[in-house]
Amino acid sequence: MNIDINCDLGETSLADGPGNDEAIMPFISSVNIACGFHAGDPLTIEQTVRSAIRNGVSIGAHPGYPDRENFGRKPMTMSPRELRAMILYQAGAVKAMAEAAGARMRHVKPHGALYNTAATDYDMSMNIVRAVKDLDSSLVLVGQSGSQLIRAARNAGLACASEVFADRAYNDDGTLVARSVEGAVLHDTDVMIRRVIRMIREKVVESVSGKLIPIEAETVCIHGDNETAAEFVRRLAGALKAGGITVKPL
């Protein structure tokens, strides 16, 4: 049994210090690199790409809304043309950085409010899918398990990966609990590890109301901006190995 562990990194500029990135990188198999809109900058993209290469981690782009003030977590209204151009611009930057370093970008995962809106908006999702496919039809699009983004990718013939979250609470309909709600982000490492293993093995997750929701776990997300992320991902990788689950890229 295999699983990918992905993490959103490159979200702290070099001027702000190293953050958790270097401590997290050895324990993940895929990295989603901020593209400069919600966070990051060209130097940070390049450094994160090179760190991924050193650690044998698969490289991906993490495009988000141009909203640094809210870290890309505030929904924005965009025309289809604007959204397409935004995806191409950001993902294209990471793709170029990877190729300049002698590597390939393997996947794209939307960030924050862009990701959450696409999860329930099929037309928006299809626009994202077409942009990614036009950039490179061999890319894998990462989207929330059971989301419209996954549905759109499959309908368009683009490879995709269903994502689950170790540290986020789920609503009864399978969507993520809004970060503004108390309890939306989990912090108990032991609870999160048990949850991840259950999602992989039993294909279910318990919602905030106690309901068991069917879920497809092909990649598990770890949020790098969580201050305990480095310790958590180290322990998670160890628990998966002990349970006979192999961590490998998409």
Task: Explain how this protein is built.
The protein has a domain at 2-165 and 216-224: TIM Barrel (Alpha-Beta Barrel), CATH 3.20.20. Helices cover 39% and strands 18% of the residues. The protein has helices at residues 21-24, 42-55, 80-100, 112-118, 122-135, 148-156, 189-202, 229-242; strands at residues 2-9, 30-34, 58-62, 105-108, 140-144, 160-165, 204-206, 212-214, 219-223, 246-247. It is globular and about 40 Å long.
Comma- or semicolon-separated keywords:
250 residues; alpha/beta; TIM Barrel; 7-stranded parallel β-barrel; two-stranded antiparallel sheet
SSE order and pairing:
Elements: E1 2-9, H1 21-24, E2 30-34, H2 42-55, E3 58-62, H3 80-100, E4 105-108, H4 112-118, H5 122-135, E5 140-144, H6 148-156, E6 160-165, H7 189-202, E7 204-206, E8 212-214, E9 219-223, H8 229-242, E10 246-247
Parallel strand pairs: 1-2, 1-9, 1-10, 2-3, 3-4, 4-5, 5-6, 6-9
Antiparallel strand pairs: 7-8
Helix pairs in contact: 2-3, 3-5, 5-6
